[in-house]
UniProtKB/TrEMBL annotation:
InterPro entries: IolE/XylAMocC-like (IPR050312), Xyl_isomerase-like_sf (IPR036237), Xyl_isomerase-like_TIM-brl (IPR013022). It comes from the Bacteria. SUPFAM superfamilies: Xylose isomerase-like. This is Sugar phosphate isomerase/epimerase. The lineage of its organism: Bacteria, Bacillati, Actinomycetota, Actinomycetes, Kitasatosporales. One of its GO terms (molecular function) is isomerase activity. Pfam families: AP_endonuc_2 (PF01261). Residues 29-291 form the Xylose isomerase-like TIM barrel domain. Keywords: Isomerase. The keyword Membrane does not apply. The keyword DNA damage does not apply.
């Protein structure tokens, strides 16, 4: 089946709505189109224009389309955070839907600061927090489906409460498949010690979206040994250009196609911050590499 290949602002060094070290949004759109990607994610809300008509025009001029928006949530904190969470999610969902996107990527909140490494809370959820995460995720998935026609895909991520094989499979076993799907990020899952190919083979029916990413195993070993936060790891180059890292992408692409459904496969190589001329050559090479493996 078809893999709809695209890229995202983080592959151009974009992590924040506004940061002078980041690639300007117009340059990102120009270069992602030049590199040959027809699909993009919105990235952090406010980086791209938030007026749907303006953004739609900018995308159309470059023959680009939106696959998804992205939000961070802290649903494990329970009903007290629901109203603020929904307000944030709602504005991202509205822009995603207005520009033709079909998915919302939901990332659990960090348990430690990604830059300083300061511990913000425990790295493990207690029973009530886990129950909050499950009920909140199901409620959010249902609301996004009913109000916006979007499919919610939860993104396991480094330094969050859903990251390694144990927490990911526990999360999937506990949630309703009709309202909660998974965004499998091959790089983050490897970063946390997971096997993406095995996850596709065992939980393939729950995977609704892919992020294609690799990690440098030597740098990852240093990061793990030193217990470094994710932001420091990225600055050290833990996320590397394919095919220089792990996991191997061709078997994962083949397994994803074997699921028999259409999937977005969005390239994400975190490089914050990075020199402005660095992303485009990498994006071109990565696109050619994926094409050589029928993606």
């Amino acid at each position: 089946m078809t893999l709809r290949v695209g890229s995202a602002p983080c592959s151009w060094g974009v992590w924040f709505p506004d940061d002078p070290r980041q690639t300007p949004w117009s340059r990102f759109l120009d270069e992602v189109a030049e590199a040959g990607y027809p699909w993009i994610e919105l990235g952090p809300f406010g980086y791209l224009p938030t007026d749907p008509a303006v953004l739609a025009d900018e995308l159309a001029r470059r023959e680009l389309r939106v696959s998804a928006g992205t939000v961070f949530t802290a649903l494990h904190r329970g009903p007290a955070v629901w109203d603020a969470t929904w307000e944030e999610v709602r504005r991202v969902a509205a822009l995603t839907r207005a520009t033709g996107g079909e998915h919302l990527v939901v990332i659990p909140e960090f348990w430690r600061d990604p830059a300083s490494g300061e511990r913000l809370e425990s790295g493990r959820l207690g029973p009530q927090q886990f129950a909050n995460l499950i009920s909140g995720s199901e409620r959010l998935g249902e609301r996004l489906r009913d109000d916006f026609g979007l499919r919610m895909v939860v993104h396991p991520h480094a330094d969050t409460h859903v990251g390694d094989e144990e927490t990911v499979t526990r999360f999937l076993d506990a949630t309703d498949a009709d309202s909660v799907s998974l965004c499998l990020d091959t790089g983050h899952y490897a970063y946390c010690g997971g096997d993406s190919l095995r996850l596709i083979e065992t939980y393939g029916e729950r995977i609704g979206y892919l992020h294609l990413k690799q990690v440098d195993p030597a740098i990852l070993a240093e990061v793990t040994a030193q217990q470094l936060p994710f932001g420091t790891a990225v600055r050290r180059g833990v996320m590397t250009e394919p095919p220089n890292g792990v996991p191997e992408l061709p078997p994962i692409l083949a397994a994803a196609r074997g699921l028999g459904v259409e999937l977005f496969a969005i390239v994400e190589q975190d490089m914050y911050p990075c020199p402005p001329d660095q992303p485009l050559p990498i994006a071109r090479r990565t696109r050619q590499y994926l094409k050589s493996h029928s993606a």
